[in-house]
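Handout for the seminar on molecular recognition.
Each group receives one record of this type.
Step one: identify the two inputs.
Step two: read the structure output and locate the region that could contact 6-O-phosphono-alpha-D-fructofuranose.
Step three: write two sentences on what you found, then compare them with the reference statements printed after the record.
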Amino acid sequence: MSAHPTQLMSLSQYLIEEQLKLPQATGDFTALMSHLVYAAKVVSREVRKAGLLENILGATDQTNVQGETVMKLDEYADKIFTHTLTRCGHLCVMGSEEQEEIIPIPTGYKIGKYTIAIDPLDGSSNIDANVSIGTIFSVHLRTSPQGTPGVKEDLLQKGSKQRAAGYIVYGSSTMLVLCVGKGVSGFTLDPSCGEFILSHPEMKMPESGGIYSINEGNYDYWSDEVKNYIRNIKSIEGGRKPQSLRYIGSLVADFHRNLLKGGIFLYPNDTKSSKYPKGKLRLLYEVAPMALIAEQAGGMAVTVEGKRILDLEPEELHERTTFVVGSKKEVEHFLTFIKK
Ligand code: P6P
């Protein structure tokens, strides 16, 4: 029998309860999150009907700062999140994958004490194939003086200092997975009432898992250590049950599956091409937020050299990094190949 609405906790209620746990809380963070959630609901609605709207499917004739073709839904999502959040009165500056420079607070709008770095629609190359895509966001407290316009340095903070991090996965359902400091909770959008409902309280990543997620098409570009690791987890001689390869090519979808089922995701750097010498994924608004969620759910997140992601000091808005994230025992096994 389904739970009575009074037994369900909404995201709004959850945020209020988290706020009440902090005596010094002013409600600014709760308000910021409510604006972000509103924008996510609008993007979810557009993603759901993209298949019916020729004018929103397909690519634009533009490329973004990453040199990637901007899909119309990318552009739409970027506009929704940046317009909503820069005017909500709780940010001093924003960063977006879709925009080369920092995004200031428009004249006439209140300047707040937080920053958000966001990938408005990650995995966009999959949009036309109707594959799950997502939004990833990272929240910091500003470091520059209150009341002044935010600066790039407000965004360039290491992942361990994030005030919050999360993602929305637009899949068979729309889910928001959120860490507001301690622990990870998942909320599923109930379209019938337009509210995110707490469906996955206290999410924990299984300590080990039988799934590995990597683009094997890049095999020749990998370092010997990464090659040795992948060969080991595929080999029956390795004394370990061979892993199953699952690779969607959409970070949010691959990460979310591993968070629920256990496993490891890797995006190494190219050692033999100039394409991604530092890795493909972006530190500020893809890797650092996912790393916080992974660690808070009991997992691990490192670079291919074994450095903890949350300790990395960002130097550029769109800087890239290698990424190895997943179940604690799986990442520890990977590290035995790197330490050697
Ligand atoms: P590749 C999507 O473009 C993305 O940024 C991530 O969502 C995903 O994990 C990765 O790139 C996929 O990259 O090179 O395997 O297609």
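Reference statements: The pocket of 6-O-phosphono-alpha-D-fructofuranose is lined by residues 122-123, 125, 215, 249-251, 254, 280 (CB under 6 Å). The chain has a mean pLDDT of 92.
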